[in-house]
Amino acid sequence: MKGLILAGGHGTRLHPITLGVSKQLLPVYDKPMIYYPLSVLMLAGITDIQIISSPDDLPLFRRLLRDGSELGLSLSYAEQDKPRGLADAFRIGADHIGDDSVALVLGDNIFHGPGFSGMLQGSAADIDGCVLFGYPVRDPERYGVGEVDARGRLVGLEEKPARPRSNLAITGLYLYDNTVLDIVRDLRPSARGELEITDVNRVYLERGRAELISLGRGFVWLDTGTHDALTEASQYVQILEHRQGVRIACLEEIAWRMGFIDQEACHRLGRRLAQSPYGQYVMEVTAAG
Prior knowledge:
Layout: E1 2-6, E2 27-28, E3 31-32, H1 35-43, E4 48-53, H2 58-65, E5 74-79, H3 88-92, H4 94-97, E6 102-106, E7 109-112, H5 116-124, E8 130-136, E9 144-148, E10 154-159, E11 168-176, H6 179-185, H7 197-206, E12 210-214, E13 220-223, H8 227-244, H9 251-257, H10 263-272, H11 277-288
Parallel strand pairs: 1-4, 1-6, 4-5, 8-12
Antiparallel strand pairs: 2-3, 6-11, 7-13, 8-11, 9-10, 9-11
């Protein structure tokens, strides 16, 4: 399975702090925002990943993450000159995806919960159709919403409905088989001129090939698109890391524990950041084995 991270857009809801830098490069407590969606793909076992962003911001992502080889990854970069909707990522990334299945994660989404890696790997294995992830929210009218029947099967999808039939918001993590490229190729822009991810998902649903996994109690999903949400995400990460003594979305540790790099390489990466608590943590966990 290939991975895509959509890290474009203008971040207008975060102005003025995004006037000079990509939203996905802003800090969420102790690390850049892009670390969080990248860690999701890594936890799914995906190592071949393309980051899609604006021409102005791509050099900054390259400077931060380079080619990914130090983490056992293969990172490539592609331009989206202007926002055309989430589904545009599949048109941009078609050559990267090739004949494989694909996972798309939005660059401003944060996921955290027990057993998440195993859930992702199980969902990504031999995928036939699409897998969506739902999360219960108090204000579903702000999101795409998934409706399920009494047996938990996905039966409907609505985009920001005035009267939601469910409180399950569709999160910014999507898994697809290779059929998604054919679907997006024939997709027409919506009334607002964008290629809508909900329209892609509806095609799978109509074909009986869409599954919704509900991320229930114990899971956290955060969309960091506003000032308040960004602050809340930073506070969540800070509290959890301080109380549990672990780092969320620590790429070096994940790469080591997933077997992408060995213990020595992970410790060496931590040593380069030794003046920061983040680097000290990486060295400590590798020293402890």
